[in-house]
């Protein structure tokens, strides 16, 4: 009830508003009589104070009284004229206008009880109505919560209670719902960019945040200046109940999504690790999630270069948080770029890598390598702006039967591991393009491989350790430059004769004529095996 409502009651037609008209919309919660100097001490706010002005002997007393009432948040002042005060001074009128405190003249013949009783009756009646409405709101939303009402149903209920159309912007699932799809709000918001909701955008609407203590789920939106919340209505109550039911609905949906994602991830892990053997089981499980693997597929694995070293060498709470954030940024960008090129790609996340299964029709496979390279270039460019880490994208071979995707996954991992041993970072590596390395990788732990390294690599390492030489490194550079000593000298920044000397020393230590083509091939294979073994040994020591 406002002062304006109070003055409009038929019982109070003889009351006159003297000043403070801009405070008529103030809420009136009670009526009290103050006729003693300390009577204002018990005011709590919202009271319409009536007085005979018995204690207001001077004009200054009246002005101070007005200030005190304003400080106490009183809703207005009614003075019985011609009792102890015959004429309310103009200064009081001016001050009441300045304070926005309604100043009302009460005829002398009015008993206070004739003001107090009707007002309190009106207030109680209004509170009873609000309580009844609040109970109805509670029942409406409780029913929606129990029966798992949809978001549009929740919004329609809220709209019917507030009398205005509304929308719910779901910030978790990036969706928007409307109470009325024919409303002006629908026309304004249907093309909104849900990934770019700014405070400037929200200022165009009345809004109400849907959130609990720990998490925000979305925002209720209304047309600007249409949402009116006050103690005179139950709009706040309706908003609170709608928010609670929307939060419950979102939490159930999020839990269901997480459970579904967990089962999907488990299925993809089974595929990649060859834990599913039967074609029928694979395709039946795929259909549960609306997936189609009848075209087979390949595995593409994004590995974050050298991130494990941070976990080993610098692990503390701050570093761990930084690494988790960096990993999330890389994974999020990887998923976005992959889905931009291959919308149907499925992915499985691990601690420092994310594996994608890409399945395309036979007539699209010829362009698949080019598409993967372009995707990697976009991702590489994006990560250079947002992350201190680089990535390697390992690509396995395409298999007609999805049952063989574990082979493609293993190949992609082999390509990445070879990249580490050869210091090939921040690039895309196709297993099918690794040449001799892909043949050596499966046999690098064989006795024959050990024997080859012992015969042709170990003597050079021992010589270097004993004489502080660089024969092994020099041999690697010579092989890298196709056995061209001059180019090797340029790369090593030493004189050509120095390379010639080292070359002859290598031949002597190995007791081998490296001018012979077969011997060169043998040394090249031994060097490649050594690099593979060396990477594996370093990785094992780190783990």
Helix-strand layout with pairing:
Blueprint: H1 3-8, E1 16-19, E2 30-33, E3 47-51, H2 59-71, E4 76-80, H3 90-99, E5 103-106, H4 113-146, H5 151-162, E6 167-170, E7 175-178, H6 184-189, H7 199-202, E8 205-211, E9 216-223, H8 235-272, H9 279-288, E10 298-304, H10 307-313, H11 317-341, E11 346-349, E12 353-358, H12 368-386, E13 391-395, H13 405-421, E14 428-430, H14 436-440, H15 447-456, H16 458-467, H17 471-480, H18 485-492, H19 496-510, H20 517-542
Parallel strand pairs: 2-3, 3-4, 4-5, 13-14
Antiparallel strand pairs: 1-5, 6-7, 6-9, 8-9, 10-12, 10-13, 11-12
Strand content range: 5-15%
Taking the alpha carbons of the first and last residues, their distance comes to 73 Å
- CATH-derived architecture of the largest domain: 2-Layer Sandwich
Low-pLDDT ranges? 537-543
Shape field: elongated
Number of continuous helical runs: 20
Overall tally of structural domains: 4
Measured on Cα atoms, how large is the radius of gyration? 40 Å
Structural class, by secondary structure, is alpha/beta
CATH class assignment of the largest domain: Alpha Beta
Tell me about the largest β-sheet.
5 strands, mixed
Helix % is 40-55%
Mean pLDDT: 88
Strand order of the largest sheet: 1-5-4-3-2
Could you characterize the architecture of this molecule?
The chain is an alpha/beta fold and 543 residues long. It has 4 domains: 108 residues, Udp-n-acetylmuramoylalanyl-d-glutamate--2,6- Diaminopimelate Ligase, Chain: A, domain 1 (3-Layer(aba) Sandwich); 122 residues, Beta-Lactamase; 161 residues, Alpha-Beta Plaits, CATH 3.30.70; 102 residues, PucR C-terminal helix-turn-helix domain (Arc Repressor Mutant, subunit A, Orthogonal Bundle), CATH 1.10.10.2840. The protein contains 20 helices and 14 strands. A 5-stranded mixed β-sheet has the order 1-5-4-3-2, sandwiched between helices. Strand 13, helix 13 and strand 14 form a beta-alpha-beta unit. Helix 15 crosses helix 20 and helix 17 packs across helix 18.
